[in-house]
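DM from R.C. (forwarded with permission)

"hey, sorry to bug you on a friday — could you get me a structure for this? deadline for the figure draft is monday and I only need the backbone to look sensible"
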Amino acid sequence: MNARLLIAVAKAKVPGVDPTIGQIAVQCPGATAVFTRLELDFCWGGQVVLKQAASDTGLDASAVLAELSAVQQGNRPPDGACNTWRALYAGIAQFHDDLINHIQSENNVLFSQFDDMEALL
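My reply, with the result:
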C-alpha cells in the first residue's frame, strides 16, 4: 500500500482497517521522524494502531495524521523537474524503504532472539 493511501485509510477511520504505526513507519517516508519527535514507539510498539498509540501518549491522532500528510508533500520532486531529479527522488524513496525494512527486520527478527537471554543475565 503506498504512503498516501495508507494515510488516507488511517484518516477514514474505517473499523477494522486501521494501519499500525509500524506499517505507517515502513510505508511513509518521513513518518519515523514525526513519530520519533512525538515519542511514538514505531519499532517495538509498532503493532499498535495510530489512534491507540496517540491516545496512550496524550496526543490527538488527527493532528499526528495532519503532520504525516504534511511530511508526504515534501517527498516529491518539484513540479517540472527533469528526469534526472525524478529518478533521484525515486532512488531516495527506494533506499529509504529498504533501510526501514532492514532496520525493522533487525529489530523484530535478529534482536528479538536475545530478549530471552536478557532475563538470564
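R.C.: lifesaver. Residues 3-120 form one domain.
me: no worries. The chain has one domain: 3-120.
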